[in-house]
Amino acid sequence: MKKLWLVLATLLTLSLTGCGYNTFQSNDEQIKASWSEVVNQYQRRADLIPNLVNTVKGYADHEKEVLLGVTNARAKVGGMQATPELINDPAAFAKFQAAQGELSGALSRLLVVAENYPQLKADASFRDLQAQLEGTENRITVARNRYIQAVQAYNITVRSFPSNLTAMVLGYKTKPNFTVENEQAISRPPSVDFAPSSSRLPGEAAGAAK
Predict the structure, then answer these.
(1) pLDDT value at residue 11
(2) Cα 16 from chain centroid?
(3) Mean pLDDT on 20-42
(4) What Cα–Cα distance (Å) separates residue 47 from each residue in 12, 41, 67?
């Protein structure tokens, strides 16, 4: 009897191996690791925002709508739980993606407004925060690309024969991924041109921003 169970266990192991079971496990671990890095980089960006907003506020306090937009977008992102379970829920993943995209847009508008304030552009703290933000946006892009590739590999395994049979038996389903449109948008990190604005007076710039 023991020999029969041993034979059955061996056959089951070989069957699962041949049908992509081990590949599923490997791909799933890669997705989790990649997702963790995406979340870490998004959190790094969120941590930079309070100081960035306060620095801009010191020179452009009347730009309340733009400043409030960034603050609200950050609060919306902070209120979402980026748990590992989120990557298995298409609706929750879409909301997370939309919230991060909203924050990216708000930051871009803030940095565009900063162009109108030469004294702000010359502030050492602002320049340092802007450099850190650009570096973080680049790291977000890299992390997202790795996640996209990991999910693509997993989804191909789910759909391909004979591993799709294993997926059906064990309940493995394709995972949601970042959209192409969103990826194109985030691949252009917000930037500030620190070229001298000698042609504009501070008063004129502020008036143009209103």
Answers:
(1) 41
(2) 34
(3) 93
(4) 49, 10, 16
d(CA 135, CA 180): 22
For the CA atoms of 82, 85, 86, 89, what is the dihedral angle to 10 degrees? -170
Q: Cis link prior to 162 (omega < 30° from 0)?
A: yes
Per-residue pLDDT averaged across 185-199, rounded? 42
Whole-angstrom distance, CA of residue 160 vs CA of residue 18: 12
CA distance 141 to 143: 6
Confidence band, pLDDT 50/70/90 cuts, at residue 36: very high
In this predicted structure, what is the pLDDT of residue 180? 57
Encoded tokens for 198: 């000698």
Domains for the chain: give ranges and CATH numbers. Answer: 42-150+180-209 (1.20.1440.20)
pLDDT value for 90: 92
- Using CA atoms, how far residue 28 sits from 35, 81, 177, 208, in Å, is 10, 20, 14, 51
Residue 126 and residue 120 in contact, taking contact as beta carbons nearer than 8 Å? yes
- Phi/psi-derived region of residue 171, left when phi > 0, alpha when psi is between -120 and 50, beta in every other case: left
The more confident residue out of 1 and 114 is 114
Would you say residue 48 has pLDDT above 50?
yes
